[in-house]
Amino acid sequence: MDHHLARSRLQIGIAKRLYLSFGVVAGLTIAAAGIAVLGNTQIAATVQQVTEEHLPATRRALLLSVASTGIAATAPELAASHNAEEARRIRATLETEAQRLATLVDDVAATLGNDRADELKQGANAMKSALASLAQGTQTRLALTASIAERVGQMRAAHRQVLELIAPQADEAFFDLTLGLRGVSDAPDAKAMEESINKLTDQELVRLSAFMQSRADVNLIAGLLAEAAQAPDAHALIPLRDRMIAASQQLDRALGDLGNDDQAQILRRAIASLTAFGQGQDGLFELRGRQLTAITQAEGALGATRRQAGQLDAAVSKAVSDAEVAAGLAGDEARAAVRRDDEADLGVGLLRLLLRALRAGLRDGLGHAQGREQAHEQQRRRPELGAGVQEHHAPPLVATLDPRARTGARARVAR
Predict the structure, then answer these.
(1) Residue 220 burial (10 A CB sphere; 0-12, 13-18, 19+)
(2) Using CA atoms, how far apart are residues 250 and 273, in angstroms rounded to an integer?
(3) Which residue, 231, 218, 120, 214, is CA-closest to 169?
């Protein structure tokens, strides 16, 4: 009885372990599926982060670099524009590019850290200010260029008018001097001749010299004004202005020898109109000085635009590098997740193989235990089967035999 109970307990223990192995295999399958789901979720999140954040940020950063480079390439065209219409066209293009640049900066800054975003925004604002200064300087330069061209044209007209006034009067003075010299020879005596020569020297010769000096000074003043309109820098205007002042003073002295007749007054007014082109806020010296200042401003703004474009490119390079590093880290995370998933699958697979081997061993053990139990049960029931055969089958068979044969059959049945 105890032996039978022990065998039953052993059989029940093997069955429990077998069922437990089935449960563990099922649990490992579920765990493997869960690990795979988690790994795939992490990989999907990493891929989404790369495709929706890092790659678009890199693309926008590269577009930002292209936009800043385009502005830096277009800005010199504005600085070198020849007329207001051309400047307006180029300025409209730059404004469009600057607006696009600001939009790209906002987009890129939204995906970067505060330091990088602030650096890009400061660079974009500085470039915008530089472009505004460049546009203002160019506009001022073109306006002053037009004013200078107009004033130079007016100055040349005034110069021609003065020369037209001087020429006939100078010819008349020369003619009067020539006639006077001829009349000297007709003087009755030496004293009269001397008086004639003194008169010619004090009047006609002085008048002719005044006209000749005035014409030379007028030409000099016109040349100085034209040179001032094209002075290479502000320092060159100083000696030109000094030379004009000296020429004007000398011209005034020459005009003093012409008297106060109507023709002399007309000539003085014409010369005053000419010299006025070198005086005051509308004078060529002042206009050229402001134009040179505007050119300097535009050149400085152009240099600032180029520097800001370079700084933006450097900031964009850093942003692209950051995006590439982030994408690389995300790729490393994805590869690590795949590796963990593979390792988990490998571990679960090995455990499943071990459990399958264990399950097969348990099945074999259970089968052997059941076989031994069945054999033991057959051995236990064999005497009972023999007695049953003797009770139910032997008497009829033995009864048909003779006494000697009946005695041998009972002996064999008893064995």
Answers:
(1) middle
(2) 16
(3) 214
Chain length of the chain: 415
Please name the amino acid found at residue 2: D
Check if the beta carbon of residue 43 is closer than 8 Å to that of residue 342.
Answer: no
At residue 191, φ and ψ (nearest 5 deg) are -65, -45
- Looking at beta carbons, which pairs linking 235-241 to residues 24 or more positions away fall under 8 Å? 237/285, 237/288, 237/289, 240/285, 241/278, 241/285
Q: What is the model's pTM?
A: 0.63
- Say how many C-beta atoms besides its own lie within 10 A of residue 319's C-beta: 26
DSSP 186: T
* Nearest by Cα to 147 from 270, 229, 235: 229
Asked whether the predicted pLDDT for residue 121 surpasses 60, the reply is yes
Q: How far is residue 224's CA from residue 250's CA, in Å, rounded to a whole number?
A: 15
pLDDT tens for 323-344 read 666 666 666 666 676 666 666 6
Show the tokens assigned to 389: 């055969």
